[in-house]
Amino acid sequence: MTLKELKSTFITQLSEVYPSQEVESIFTVLSEYFLNYTRLETVLKADESLSKEIIKHFENAISRLKRQEPVQYICGKTEFYSLPFKVDKHTLIPRPETEGLVQWIIDDENKKQTKSKTLLDIGTGSGCIAISLAKNLKDIDVSALDFSPEALKTAHKNSVLNSVKVTFFELDLMDEQTLPQRYDIMVSNPPYVRELEKSDMRSNVLEYEPKSALFVTDKDPFLFYRRIARLANLYLTDNGRVYFEINEYLSDELKALLLTERFTDIEVRKDIFGKDRMIKCSVHE
Ligand SMILES: C[S@@+](CC[C@H](N)C(=O)[O-])C[C@H]1O[C@@H](n2cnc3c(N)ncnc32)[C@H](O)[C@@H]1O
User: Fold this and answer.
1) Tag placement on the chain: N or C end, fewer CB within 10 Å?
2) To test the ligand 1 pocket, which listed residue (73, 146, 224, 271) has its Cβ within 8 A of the most ligand atoms?
3) What are phi and psi of 251, to 5 degrees?
4) Within the chain, which residues score under 50 in pLDDT?
């Protein structure tokens, strides 16, 4: 079978499951992963015959994709802020919206005369926020926590992959109230999707990504924000800042909650899709 024939089988088999543009881009990702070919090479080498082993890899991927498994889990990797990250079933696949949060922190730091010295990423998952910040900010000690030991293992591998030093530690926000030190910046993309929003989500997210990374109850959507706000009140340095990724539908309510928790200078920003997606705030005594 040639690469061209394989591509045509791939598209036919998956066109009922994914929009055609997405099938094309998944094919490109898998060609890079299994064959080490760029998009251009997949065109130039269209008539090349493929080995049985490669065809088997693609067939296996097709059946996993039919069951809506994200291609990032099939390859075990993705890209975030132009850096490579390993991902697995214990880690959320980093989203492009979250890059906006990282960019906000980098832009703020670049404008500041006195640079922040310590930063904590809360609910680090793959480590994407902590690692991209450690890579792009100079002279800052970056720490990151999660309650999932498996996610922390992957996050640590990602710090090695990206040649940065991040101090990872395990902590469950639901039962711990102490941190090892104070921080100039706290950042978090905590679970914030309400159960009622599940019906808007695709099954590749619902069935494969870790539920504990995504969902909160309809009754208490700000559970994590309250816990983190209390930690910030105790462990943020004077004039420190907190950056949160947020639920697009709940920015006003979250602002109100942060005001009651004594935060000031609250600013909401939209993501690349024009949705309220991030909040920055400070604690002043
Ligand atoms: C939305 S994911 C964010 C992952 C990553 N920071 C990102 O932006 O892609 C939320 C993270 O919070 C972690 N988490 C959930 N419940 C937690 C808890 N009780 N204590 C600490 N971390 C928790 C999950 O394991 C997950 O990695």
Assistant:
1) C
2) 146
3) -65, -40
4) none
| Residue 109 Cβ < 6 Å to ligand 1 | no
Antiparallel, parallel or unpaired: β 276-282 and 264-270:
antiparallel
| Burial class of 222 by CB neighbour count within 10 A (0 to 12, 13 to 18, 19+) | buried
Tell me the two tokens of residue 168. Answer: 């990872």
Which residues, in sequence order, are bridge partners of residue 183? 236
The residue type found at 112 is K
pLDDT at 18: 92
Report residue 38 as tokens: 């760029």
pLDDT for residue 204: 81
So what's the pLDDT on residue 223? 96
Distance 69 CA to ligand 1 centre (A): 20
* Whole-structure pTM value: 0.95
The domain ranges of the chain are 3-67, 80-282
Ligand 1 pocket test, pick from 90, 92, 122 with the greatest ligand atom count within 8 Å of Cβ, gives: 92
